[in-house]
Amino acid sequence: MARATKLITINTETGRDKGKVFLVTEPNAFIGERMFNQAFSLCGEDVTPQSLMMKTATAEGRELWESLLYLVKYVPNPNDISTAREIDQRGDDIEDISTVIRLRGEALSMIVNFTEE
């Protein structure tokens, strides 16, 4: 069975990222478990993007928060998902801070939502 994926279209009223599309992919089981354990050790049972953001002041928290973007790819041509590529953090793939935070939250949900099954 393939890993879960989710296409995210940035549908803001304004902003430089309006209309951009990103692909979030569930990590493999071992990486996902490691990331979940990091999140759980930081936040306890309240593992949410908001609670995790508050915990990133520690070195351990920052490592996890940064690694979440590795689960996200930019899709420059939304009509062709095969164009998905790693995000260029030095370029214009993501231009709004709110987009970065949202995408990290979506990636985090790929890790913690399995507990609801």
Q: Which residues form runs of ≥5 with pLDDT under 50?
A: none
Instruction: Give the CA-based shape.
Output: globular
> Care to count the β-strands?
4
Mean pLDDT: 87
Task: Give Rg in angstroms.
Answer: 14 Å
Give a written overview of the molecule.
The protein has 117 residues and is an alpha+beta fold. The protein has one domain. 40% of the residues lie in helices and 14% in strands. It has a 4-stranded antiparallel sheet with strand order 1-2-3-4, with helices on one face. The protein is globular and about 40 Å long. The two termini are 16 Å apart. The model has no long low-confidence stretch (mean pLDDT 87).
Question: Which characteristics define this entry?
Answer:
single chain; 117 residues; alpha+beta; 14% strand; four-stranded antiparallel beta sheet
Task: Itemize the secondary structure elements and their pairings.
Elements: E1 5-9, E2 21-25, H1 29-43, H2 49-55, H3 59-67, E3 72-75, E4 85-86, H4 97-112
Antiparallel strand pairs: 1-2, 2-3, 3-4
